[in-house]
Input
Amino acid sequence: MYKDLRTLCSTRKLLQEKEIKAFEVVQECLDNIKQTEPGIRAMLSIREEQALEQAREMDRQGPDRDRPLWGIPMTIKDVICTRDTPTTCGSRLLENFTPGYDAPLVQRLRQAGAIILGKTNMDEFAMGSSTENSALQTTRNPWDPSRVPGGSSGGSAASMAAAQSLGSIGTDTGGSIRQPASFCGVVGMKPTYGRVSRYGLVAFGSSLDQAGPMTSSVPDSAAILNVISGHDPLDSTSSTAPVPDYLSALEKRKDLRGLRIGLPRQFWEKKTSPEVDAACQKALEAVREAGAETVPADLPHAEHGGAAYYIIAMAEASSNMARYDGVRYGYRDPEALELMDMYRRTRSRALGEEVQRRIMIGTYVLSAGYYDAYFKKAAQVRRLIHQDFMRAFKDCDLLCSPVVPHTAFRLGDKVDDPLQMYLMDIFTASVNLAGLPGISIPAGTGDETGLPVGIQLMGPAFGDELLLQAANILEQSLPALPFPPAGQ
Ligand code: GLN
Output
């Protein structure tokens, strides 16, 4: 029975037509959570009673056509503030922190009728690529429990792959929506910077962070983006650009004819695993069969994207993390003797190794003696990368590349080697540096491991509509993935 309910859009139709009750949909998701959660541990909190009660109440009132997510169960990455559930950021420091308000994007989801089922696990403060940096629990990949789900939105990705809800919200600073989506075989979209309000999204790299949908299909992502997009007076970087109807836009494009899709040389020349290579080549064939022309593209500075990203993200993180001083939020060390001692004990006890490493490197690259050599240089490289993309988009409508050089790796494989972990973002981070939209959709599974492989499409700023249209066609042209073992 669940199979028919798998997508948000098909369920929405059934709900609106009263073919099914919100209560039943919520109950099915909760049953799936009960069945799969012991094996994958994707959720940090579950609002079982509240969600069922809310669904009951909604059923009493009947479906509301003006609320596009009426009765749809969703989950939210635990870096986004929710007033009635803790928002831990996967950290000991915020383990018992419940914000006094909903992030505007959560408010919008609730107003649209979504039922929040709970919060998903993540790398501490969204710093990582495997969710192993969560201080609270280890999430496993539903395709193979010995492997990571990717990160930092690994909880959302694993949860979607196991059909625990009909849509999830992740965040992407350097790849954290697209990379776990690729590892878990789901769709993950990072919208244009400024498209979705960042207010109430706990900051990591403020000039890079963006929230976006993680779903089982492209139309589902479009339906969610419709709701969460738009200007927010509380976020001065949110855009006032009008929000198109992303979902109905999908019907306007039936193929990829007339589109030029650029293949950035610097990304396709990078070594990827044979499985990733094979799946991406098949995806390119599908792109061409759907009528698009694939053309070579050049992003001459993109190979420095990873280095520039890690300097800028760490610099911004070191400054953003200053607020966790034991005074204002969360954990305060009880044994401190005086103020400096309290700061030191609080931060060294409650923050994990990776977060501390980033605070130190970030502080270093911003320090008076090294600012010019590191931060300023990285900011200049960022501008060059931005210009590379602008130039490429003069020549083509969209760009296409792999998402990650290989499929999901085993738990423990890279956790002691930060540099290896940082290489997870070589195909994704440049998009964040340039503020552009990007989407990962499943391209197939590897012949050898059976693990999912994603393919990435990237668009010009505020080209989210075209990006979703093209992703939708490509998704229809590619083979549907089977259900992962832990999702059955
Ligand atoms: N893996 C990258 C990092 O560790 C990206 C994280 C993210 O996008 N939040 O910084």
Observations:
- The chain has one domain: 4-261+395-487.
- The chain has a mean pLDDT of 96.
- The chain has 17 helices and eleven strands.
- The domain at 4-261+395-487 is CATH 3.90.1300.10 (Amidase signature (AS) enzymes).
